[in-house]
Amino acid sequence: MYKKILVPIDVLEDELTQKMIPHIECLAKLSNAQVIFFHSLPVSSAIVNAYSFGFDEFKDQATVQTQQSLLRLIDSIDLPKDNVSYSIAFGNPRDEILRLVEEIKPDLIIIGSRRPNISTHLLGSNASGVVRGAKTSVLVVR
């Protein structure tokens, strides 16, 4: 059914990620699908300023910490390790997710979303932006 599943996560939202794990495991096992976890690091003004002055270690440290979180997640998931990988990017999460979707062409996106409230209704959330912008099926887990 699914050959490639993209799973955008926020490594700081462990509770939401844990809610997604049963869905990921079940759907990936059904057809031996490849699972790609993805995290987008924000490009804050502090990182941009530090990077422009040659402080690559700020960018590198954020990437290393994210990589460690993703590797712990991959170790904890009940799927063949050969079928699970990860990707990290810098930028707006919604934009980077949609860019990656165009690049890797997954059959399914599984994304977590907290309960909507007035601020996410007015400002939009990453999950709703992905649902609106993706040209593939999206499973939203709450």
Give a nutshell description of this structure:
The protein has 142 residues and is α/β, with parallel strands linked by helices.
What does this protein look like?
This protein is an alpha/beta fold and 142 residues long. The protein has one domain (4-141): HUPs (Rossmann fold, 3-Layer(aba) Sandwich), CATH 3.40.50.620. It has 6 helices and 5 strands; from the N terminus they run βαβααβαβααβ. It has helices spanning 14-31, 45-52, 56-76, 93-104, 118-123, 126-133; strands at 4-8, 34-41, 84-90, 108-112, 137-141. A 5-stranded parallel β-sheet has the order 3-2-1-4-5, with helices on both faces. Strand 1 (4-8), helix 1 and strand 2 (34-41) form a beta-alpha-beta unit. The longest helix is centred in the middle third of the chain and has 21 residues, at 56-76.
Provide keyphrases for this structure.
142 residues, 5-stranded parallel beta sheet, alpha/beta, 21% strand, Rossmann fold
* Major sheet: 5 strands, parallel
How many domains would you count in the coordinates? Answer: 1
Helix content: 40-55%
* CATH H-tier superfamily: HUPs
General shape: globular
Order of H and E elements: EHEHHEHEHHE
CATH class: Alpha Beta
As residue ranges, the low-confidence spans are none
Assigned CATH architecture: 3-Layer(aba) Sandwich
Name the structural class. alpha/beta
Strand order of the largest sheet: 3-2-1-4-5
Helix tally equals 6
Number of strands: 5
Strand content: 15-25%
**Mean residue pLDDT:** 87
Topology:
Blueprint: E1 4-8, H1 14-31, E2 34-41, H2 45-52, H3 56-76, E3 84-90, H4 93-104, E4 108-112, H5 118-123, H6 126-133, E5 137-141
Parallel strand pairs: 1-2, 1-4, 2-3, 4-5
